[in-house]
Amino acid sequence: MDNKLVEKLLNDLGEFNEGIGEKNAKQLNTKLVERVIKRLASFSGGCKECEKHLLALDGQIGKLMGKHGQFEKVDFKEQQLQVNAVTSHLQKEHKLITEGYYMTLYMSIGMSIGLIFGLLLFDNVGLGLPFGLSIGIAIGVSMDADAKKKGLTI
Question: pTM of the full predicted structure?
Answer without folding.
Answer: 0.79
